[in-house]
Design brief:
Elements (H helix, E strand, L loop, with lengths): L1 E4 L8 H14 L3 H6 L9 E5 L2 E5 L1
Parallel strand pairs: 1-2
Antiparallel strand pairs: 2-3
Amino acid sequence: MELKSIDEFEEETKEKALDNALKQIEDKKYEIEVKKRGYSHILKMGVVFDGKRVWVKC
């Protein structure tokens, strides 16, 4: 799971922030340690906050 907030300074959209969160999970290979522990079903989630609003993309 990667948590992000919307960067209003760069006029980032929630969709772009969600895509960036999922891309970071892939780029940094977060699942490697989990796989080493024997887990095979891994759910990757990007979570984006904008104030009190929250969006999730898997």
